[in-house]
Amino acid sequence: MTIRISHDHVGLSITPDDLDATIAWYSRTLGFRVEQQFEAHGTTYTFLVSGDVRIELMNGASERQVPTTDVFTSMDPARLHHVCLAVDDLDAAVAELADLGVELIGGPLEVPGAGQRIAFVADNLGNVIELTDPGNGRATSS
């Protein structure tokens, strides 16, 4: 392949009524801040940023998805399933989110094949977010 690819952002389609609550959820729970917000083509676009992670909120949806309470039952239908965010310490992140009232929908789980521990939460709209601590438990060669 000759196309050089790097990750830029993940886009979430939201309802106009959910814009402020979604900005607040990502700010309060995961430390995101509004990088920029603008109107184009009758839609408000809001970019949230935390470190090198960017999330684009597009307020063009007319209805919400059904929230999930179990990551394993949420894998059907075929679609983009989740966004994965790396954290420095999975247990500390899970504890901090619990203090903020965010419930796990999966994990923490050991994934021996990937050498990772992971956990799953859902945002205020039901989007699945995987948290991983890639340095903790990573298989090393001897």
TrEMBL record:
The keyword Metal-binding applies. Residues 6-134 form the VOC domain. Keywords: Metal-binding. InterPro entries: Glyas_Bleomycin-R_OHBP_Dase, MMCE/EMCE_epimerase, VOC_core. Signal peptide: none annotated. This is VOC family protein. It comes from Nocardioides plantarum.
